[in-house]
Amino acid sequence: MFARAIRAPLKLARYYSSRGTIFGLSSGSGKCGVAVIRVSGDASSDVIQRKTSSNKLPAARQAVLRRILHSRTAETIDRGLVLWFPGPHSFTGEDCVEFHVHGGAAVVSAMYDSLGSIDGVRLAEPGEFTKRAFYAGKMDLTEVEGLADLIEAETEAQRKQALLQASGELSKLYNEMRSRLVRCIANVEAYIDFAEDQDVDDTVLQSVGEDVATLVRDISTHLNDHRRGERLRAGVRTAIIGAPNVGKSSFVNLLSNRKVSIVTNVAGTTRDIIESHHDIGGYPVILADTAGLRASTDDIVESEGISRAKDYFQLADLLILMIDSEDLQRYLQNGDTFDCFLSHYLTSLGINREALSTAKSMLIVNKCDLLPESFLEPIKKIPNITLLSCHTQAGLEAVLQEITTNLKHLCGNPSKESPNLSQQRHRYHLKQCLDCLEKYQRYVEGQRNPDLAIATQHLRNATRCIGKITGAIETEEILDVIFSTFCIGK
Q: Is the model's pLDDT at 314 over the cut of 60?
């Protein structure tokens, strides 16, 4: 609530009204059944009157059918719906109007030409409607970012995370942290200025120390999320690795339902990283087909492909190691264990077993249609192995289920009680805040008679770091807390 309360100063309102009235297409571009053109600013009511030849404004937030005219020629552009949103009860906090017209290119072009011909009305800059909403206190920066993510969301899990952020769940968490910091500063400053007053006793500083310690734990826990929210927002980088000709490219094509990668009987067809984007179980996945790995090669191009594959999977979130079922059969028939086979297989790829521990990994035994059922049964009993045939698609459902299980672990399940940290910007400012709090702790605990003014500055810096996340700035809040909490000046 602090952020909303302080973002509506009159100078900002005057600043944006001085920038004029803006218009823009709020619906998707291209041919469509209905196009929504939004107008926001002081001249919105005049725009309605000029474009509908009516001196009477529609009832607020009720759609009315009107002939929509060209403001310069008075020719009819279209018949459509007009909605009037008087400020401050609108998206931007200003007077707004929406024209719902047919979505043909000629209609939209005529609307643009008409609106642009009105004095003081101009085309909106990218994101300007949302920017005005931010300055009007309608949303903070985390909600703005959530709205952008909601528009860009391509999977169900991304939609849920973005909706939580756009709805203010993340800002509630940060504003709550910030209000706790404000109370800490207020308590320390009250102790400095009014220590002799009976309303402020010596337990105040001890209480502040406990509150700061709790905040340090809470922020550290929030940061220690293994980047689940950022991974869900950007997509889970998944590398498919294995020996040449084990079916990596066939697997990518199977999941894509199209020919993303070239597939031939020649080993080493894939030489570069080929990425494709997928929605698996509602989670965004960036699937990378990589060059077949081997310990050594004299082919310069293949060697470069292997080097790129190794660089990629070392940065991947999820590794899918593909194994040829016939290679596995030959090895196990000699009486060796699967664990021995895996060590031998990884050695033949030129990687060590520890490389698999850098990310979540799963094992897929491909070409299972080439093996007799009698041999497949013992393989099925080996833990953490999924059988697949890219040729017949047998086992595909089990593979997708296993991938989804890994994705759930990697991306988490954002909720109102535990919203995900989804932006690198948030992480940076939270780390800066944590650093300031730890400086406060070290300074207070390391000094026999610490200068409380210096200690308070560390808390102020921490508060500013939190405020940078939501776009809030602290001004007179601390004084307000002091007077309301300690009843000073009564």
A: yes
